[in-house]
Automatic annotation (TrEMBL):
A Pfam family that the UniProt record links to this protein: Vgb_lyase
Name this polypeptide is given: Cytochrome C
Domain of life: Bacteria
Organism, as annotated: Brevundimonas aurifodinae
């Protein structure tokens, strides 16, 4: 949804004290997979206004695929996206609460109950409709995120719940944020083809443009043990190396056309592993030569959003195209996959391996579940992801904190979320 008054679109530095929401997941009944979501809104008074407001930023499937909300909950969700006049607000809330009340999702999640509990703590970001994403923990314990839609970068102090945000250079449209070993803040300028270093003391960013005009969309990055940043460029079909000390950027193009390199991780030996979002492959990169090796995965409809690495060196990945969780063993060259609990349309997305337990999100169903998989027992459990009282929004990335918990986001709820996990064993 877009913001109304022009003033609400002015980016500025600010601080906000806001108490976080804290909820505890309770057991839920198992639900079976349903039909695909409707692609258009119900025809009734208010439809045109809702369609116009919402579709300028995202598809109406965010509404039609939702589990539905009460008027109070629709109000909370809309208020994080757009500022409306009193009259427009009444029309929009009347329409949404009447035609999309709590009634279950047209593509319901299958929640797998179990004894474990996960608690969620959410902070709402300040600028409306900014679609916060990719939160990461800094050495001082603060949480950094970027707002791709709002062209912002933000910091949360979990101890006080203070939220600060700053504008980034025009058209940066940041996709992700990373923190180096010294606490330096870096973001990927997905919109203007740059890597940026942000200085919170001055509120200014230094940009490093891509050396090749075909390298248009820096996407996801990770630092290695030597302080080198490795990053993907999804639509440019490239992978890059950036040295922050010299500003040197080197790029290689993936041989497989349409591979669309997406998630990236650094193994303990420095090897880079990259997910193919447009094809059925993983990519291994030699950090010394930048030579690429493609590993074919089973299934022509396989696509991989993100991956992570367990302590034994195995590569865990989400098979987003087939609704599965997979693992590749570089030592044996063998691959195994398991059906995700919500089925082939569940579209697993974000993933993190913590204490050799695999955590990932299902983004194609509602409410979006956080799924836990134990490789030792090959068993699943899951819980709906919540931002306050709201359940909705796609978790596109999740990252571990230093104490073994998870940071994630729900863009449609304008929230950054900390999931406190049960301890292993």
């Amino acid at each position: 949804m877009t913001s109304g008054p022009t003033a609400n679109r002015i980016l500025r530095s600010f601080a906000l004290i806001a108490a976080p929401f804290v909820v505890q997941c309770a057991p839920e009944t198992v639900r079976e997979q349903g039909p695909a979501a409707p692609t258009s809104l119900i025809e009734a008074t208010g439809r045109a206004q809702v369609d116009s407001l919402c579709s300028s930023c995202h598809g109406v499937s965010h509404i039609t695929m939702s589990t539905g909300y009460t008027r109070e909950h629709w109000d909370a969700l809309v208020s994080g996206m757009v500022e409306l006049s009193p009259a427009d607000r009444e029309t929009v809330l009347d329409y949404l609460s009447t035609h999309y009340p709590p009634s279950g999702s047209p593509r319901p999640a299958r929640i797998v109950d179990g004894p474990l509990r996960v608690s969620f703590q959410a902070w709402r970001t300040r600028q409306l409709g900014q679609r916060p994403r990719d939160p990461v923990q800094a050495p001082d314990g603060s949480i950094w995120y970027v707002g791709q839609q709002g062209n912002t970068i933000g910091q949360i102090d979990p101890r006080t719940s203070e939220v600060r945000e700053w504008p980034l250079p025009a058209e940066a449209l940041p996709h992700s944020v990373n923190i180096d070993a010294q606490g330096g803040v870096w973001y990927m300028g997905n919109g203007n083809g740059t890597i940026g270093r942000f200085d919170p003391a001055t509120g200014q960013a230094r940009e490093y443009p891509m050396p090749d005009p075909d390298a248009r969309d820096p996407h996801t990055a990770e630092f290695d043990a030597n302080g080198i940043m490795w990053f993907t460029l999804q639509r440019s079909n490239m992978i890059g190396r950036f040295d922050p000390r010299t500003g040197d950027i080197r790029l290689v193009t993936v041989e497989r056309e349409g591979a669309r390199p997406y998630g990236i991780k650094v193994a303990s030996d420095g090897t880079l592993w990259i997910a193919c979002n447009g094809s059925n492959c993983l990519i291994r990169m030699d950090p010394r030569t930048m030579a690429l090796t493609e590993i074919d995965l089973p299934g022509d409809d396989t696509t991989v959003r993100r991956l992570d690495i367990s302590s034994d060196g195995r590569i865990w990945y989400v098979n987003s195209g087939r609704g599965r969780l997979g693992v590749y063993d570089p030592g044996t060259g063998q691959t195994r996959e398991w059906d995700s609990p919500s089925g082939p349309e569940s579209h697993p997305y974000a993933i993190a391996v913590i204490d050799d337990i695999v955590w990932y999100s299902e983004s194609g169903v509602r409410p979006d579940p956080l799924v836990r998989f134990d490789p030792r027992t090959e068993t699943f459990q899951s819980r709906p992801i919540q931002a306050g009282q709201l359940r909705g929004g796609i978790v596109r990335h999740m990252r571990a904190t230093r104490d073994g918990n998870l940071l994630m986001h729900q863009g449609s709820a304008n929230s950054v979320i900390l999931a406190t996990l049960p301890r292993a064993g």
